[in-house]
Specification:
Elements (H helix, E strand, L loop, with lengths): L6 E5 L2 E5 L2 E7 L5 E6 L3 E2 L4 E11 L2 E13 L2 E14 L3 E7 L18 E9 L18 E10 L7 E5 L7 E2 L8 E8 L2 E6 L2 E6 L5 H5 L3 E9 L5 E11 L23 E9 L5 E10 L2
Parallel strand pairs: 6-13
Antiparallel strand pairs: 1-4, 2-3, 3-18, 4-17, 5-17, 6-14, 6-18, 7-8, 9-10, 9-17, 10-11, 11-12, 14-15, 15-16, 19-20
Length: 294
């Protein structure tokens, strides 16, 4: 992943090819919402891992001014000056999302392209502080934050549903006029119901509670992909080199013999407990199999 035949592109999402480097471009202007979904549902009843590269480019910045006194006479300011500052650059951000709504996108702007989707686990790369979303605020010059939201039903992209966050992550954004980062590598891992997110090898988010995604969201299978949203501020959002790691199991047909004098009656239901482990010995899940005889 990605492959042209494996991804469903929605909204402003499109393939982008520059110097034979193929990426998915989610947005490239203001007031856009986009999504790109892997077309096969992904099971989350075992450990989960995905890696990808993301590139976020902010090409527009707002400014604000402050006034200072340049000269005073007997305590009165007789000459003033004006300082010009760069304020917010770009918006609103991008997210890696697991959801059950299918091949669609959500709201633009602070909705990050996933607001309104059903049963969502989202890793946000949020670039704009939206007060109505309860986004954390660091400084006027840098609104970046990361968070993981978990919400059953219609997602609101609101930080009230964040289970983990980082309001001062390492730089993963290219701001117009400075702070250049072409792209960063992201590694998302859910192992033994613990969540960790690495950016360029540095741990940025950790959740060490009991993260049971299927129980929290009411589903075992999810559509995996990326969303993005922009508002008045223009921002380009890309992803590429996406890999999904999913365990697969195969076992030969086998039979069992009942011990002692036990017998099987016609149409009797029997329960077998099967423990599956990978080649490293890690326990995955227990599955009940029901069979009848006769």
């Amino acid at each position: 992943v990605p492959n042209i035949n494996q991804l469903a592109l929605r909204g402003s999402a499109d393939w982008w090819n520059y110097s034979n480097n193929v990426k998915v471009r989610l947005t490239n202007n203001g007031w856009q919402a986009a999504a790109s979904w892997y077309q096969n549902p992904v099971p989350l009843n075992n450990d989960f891992r995905t890696t990808f590269r993301t590139s976020i480019n902010a090409w527009s910045c707002s400014t604000y001014t402050t006034t200072y006194c340049r000269a005073k006479f007997f305590g009165w300011c007789i000459s003033t000056g004006t300082d010009y500052h760069t304020d917010r650059c770009g918006g609103d951000g991008q997210a890696f999302v697991l959801q059950t709504s299918g091949f669609t996108h959500g709201s633009l702007g602070g909705g990050l392209g996933y607001e309104g989707l059903q049963n969502v686990l989202a890793l946000e790369f949020d670039t704009y502080q939206n007060g109505d979303k309860n986004d954390p605020w660091w400084s006027k010059e840098d609104d970046r934050h990361m968070s993981v939201t978990l919400q059953r039903g219609a997602a609101s992209a609101n930080e009230n549903y964040a289970i983990a966050w980082n309001d001062r992550p390492i730089n993963w954004k290219n701001n117009y006029g400075g702070g250049y980062r072409d792209s960063v590598g992201v590694d998302v891992r859910i192992v033994d119901r613990l969540l960790e997110v690495y950016v360029d090898g540095s741990l940025q988010i950790g959740y060490y509670g009991n993260l049971d995604v299927p129980a929290s969201l009411g589903s075992t299978y999810f559509f995996a992909g990326f969303t993005a949203g922009t508002g008045a501020m223009k921002e380009d959002h890309y992803f590429y080199d996406w890999v999904l790691y999913m365990d697969s199991f195969s076992a030969p047909h086998s039979s069992t013999t009942l011990a002692g004098s036990d017998s099987v009656m016609p149409n009797q239901v029997m329960t077998f407990t099967v423990n599956l482990r990978n080649s490293c010995g890690r326990y995955h899940y227990r599955n009940n199999i029901y069979e009848s005889a006769g």
